Amino acid sequence: MNQPERSITLEEWESTRLLAREIEVVTGCDIEVAVARLGQLVRCSPAWGGAVELVASGKVGEISIGGLHVRVRPHLPAGDLVRLFAWVRGARLDVLDEMLGVHGQADVTFIEALAVGLVVKGERLLLRDPDRAYWRREERLALLRGRPVFEKMGAAPLALGVPCRYMEGTRDTPPNRLVAFGLDAATRVLRRQGAWIGRARAVAQVFLDLAPGARMPSRSDYIATRERLSQRSEPYREALWLSEWLVLGGGPLSSAGAGGTAGWSLDMAALFEAAVTQALRKEVESLGLRAVAQKQDRRAITTADGAEYCRVIPDIEVLRGEQVIAVVDAKYKAYCLADDDGSPSLRIANGDLYQLAFYGSRGPGPVMLAIVSPQEGEAPSLDQRFRTIHVAGQPLRLIGVDLGALAGERHSIWSQIEGASPPAPTA
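-> structure tokens emitted (427 positions)
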């Protein structure tokens, strides 16, 4: 009997409900197991009437469990999301810019864009002379190859062959092996992309023939291979990044199941925090300031005898010299989403306000406080009354950032924070 199929597509921050019994039938496993696996992409919680609520909260991607297929689509177009991810990971991927510029952004998912980029890069590598290595070999041959080894001439009868020393070339090199394995993963990712699957299979087979020693790589394999790239093999760098992300994920990108066969997820909260940190650090450094991320404060909360009770870790502190002048918290929440009248669709959670108030109380003087959240360009604008609020007498600025503009360094965060600077103390 064929297993029933069910497909669900959610936008970020959307939710839906399924009966627990239906989940068991469609996935073919117990509800506890199904919920644990779905939890790699969506938040699951019990609901009335024997239902389970699936909430798209902080992650985008796809996951398949038996006949149940869940997809969470990002608000950001796939092309912008790929560029932002590559920028945060410190990789320059010109091939993706070219590909996404030609083929648009709506027809591929994030992970499919990475796979298409690797296919295109693989085709271009084959148009060049693919990577090769040379090994020094020594053996007895019927015909002379390379140079004869004169000192071994009399060691055995010539009927056994002439002792030869020569260099032998091979294409079965680490760069070709890693690209081959990545392309093999790309063929699975692109199985629904009819325009690309044939090209993916063809170029993957060529690389697998070149490098029959390809095996499941580790993170250290990719790192070591990138470090050893020569001037001749430098064109492989982009392909190695793409292969690593497809096979092993990286940073906020994770695979579900072996090699991502059951799906993938991108932690948007982690990506957003990394992007804000990187953008703010570059911006304030040009002004002679410093931005420090995830600095642990062991003296903020102590026991009666002064020992550490627990650690406090602000997202980002901005310093002038050694003095903290601002504390910035990156929150991937819809705090900048407004209703038609300009009021917030989602107010800042009490816990987030208390957190910033506590951070602000740690300094000897006034400290600027800011929460940075994503903002959609075409959404209703949040009224200015709600962009600056006062917490324990200190102004807290709510900053909306366009994620697509961050990677292109076209968005200023610090100038908006300074707009909420507290007045200088009077003498």
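Residues 110-127 form the longest helix (18 residues).
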